[in-house]
């Protein structure tokens, strides 16, 4: 259960190792018979169906172990990325994302994603470098004077988007978007709390850093507004 990468990698190897044989030897036979079937894609589809069976059996066994469940999700997302980008798998075919979208699994994924995101926010705001810009010594890069915590937070949101963007239904994507909105509101509250401690020094270093953080986040969210 703690090594899903073993069978996921094995399937990717099988697909890669057989592609030349399927293209050179099997595909011409299918074409000669007047079939529109793509041998390579059908081979991939059959192997992915085995993975779906395996996942359906494994997920109930690790649903409440955060570490194992997170590892499985991470490995499945890496597998899916390679399957589509390297091997040309079709989005209309069955995929692992359909298993991750099933109710019990999906709700668990959302819960764990939120838990780890909040932990990340705790660590980024308690860091000594939280209010310092990574690029403070490079003036042409650092026009917005973005503190490290704001940049790390927006990267966190971007990573979450990258993880859920291939979900098969819009309703599931919207649930993840709801999580991102919760995280933005949580971050806003945390900034407000820090700002209240700094009101006596409103031209102080940290107070200005908070204003820069808010400006940066608002600007990036406006840029993302075109991303459906």
Describe it for me?
It contains eight helices and no strands. It has helices spanning 4-32, 39-62, 66-85, 96-100, 103-126, 148-164, 170-197, 205-224. The chain starts with a helix and ends with a helix.
Write the layout of secondary structure elements.
Blueprint: H1 4-32, H2 39-62, H3 66-85, H4 96-100, H5 103-126, H6 148-164, H7 170-197, H8 205-224
Helix pairs in contact: 1-2, 1-3, 5-6, 5-7, 6-7, 6-8, 7-8
Pfam family, one: RINT1_TIP1
InterPro entries: RINT1_Tip20 (IPR007528)
Organism: Tychaedon coryphoeus
The structural class is mainly alpha
Oligomer class: single chain
| Strand content bin | under 5%
Largest sheet: none
Record field, number of beta strands:
0
Global morphology: elongated
Number of helices: 8
Task: Point out poorly predicted stretches.
Answer: none
Mean pLDDT: 92
Tell me roughly what share of residues is in helical segments: over 70%
- Distance from N terminus to C terminus (CA atoms, Å) equals 36 Å
Pfam families: RINT1_TIP1 (PF04437)
Protein name: RINT1 protein
Organism: Tychaedon coryphoeus
What does this entry show, briefly?
The chain is mainly α and 228 residues long. It is built from eight helices and no strands.
Describe this protein with a few key phrases.
2 domains; RINT1_Tip20; mainly alpha; elongated; 228 residues; RINT1 protein; single chain
């Amino acid at each position: 259960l703690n090594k899903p990468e073993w069978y996921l990698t094995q399937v990717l190897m099988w697909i890669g190792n057989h592609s030349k044989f399927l293209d050179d030897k099997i595909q011409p036979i299918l074409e000669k018979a007047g079939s529109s079937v793509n041998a390579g894609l059908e081979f991939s589809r059959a192997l992915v169906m085995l993975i779906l069976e395996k996942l359906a059996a494994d997920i109930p066994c690790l649903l409440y172990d955060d570490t194992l469940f997170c590892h499985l999700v991470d490995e499945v997302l890496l597998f899916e990325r390679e399957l589509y980008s390297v091997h040309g798998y079709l989005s209309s075919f069955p995929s692992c994302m359909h298993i991750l979208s099933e109710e019990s699994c999906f709700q668990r994924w959302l819960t764990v994603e939120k838990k780890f995101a909040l932990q990340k926010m705790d660590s980024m705001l308690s860091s000594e470098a939280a209010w310092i810009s990574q690029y403070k010594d490079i003036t042409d890069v650092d026009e917005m004077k973005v503190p490290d915590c704001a940049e790390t937070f927006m990267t966190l949101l971007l990573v979450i988007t990258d993880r859920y963007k291939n979900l098969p239904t819009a309703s599931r994507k919207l649930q993840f978007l709801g999580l991102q909105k919760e995280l933005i509101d949580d971050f806003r509250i945390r900034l407000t709390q820090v700002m209240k401690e700094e009101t006596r020094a409103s031209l102080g270093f940290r107070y200005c850093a908070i204003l820069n953080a808010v400006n940066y986040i608002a600007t990036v969210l406006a840029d993302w507004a075109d991303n459906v």
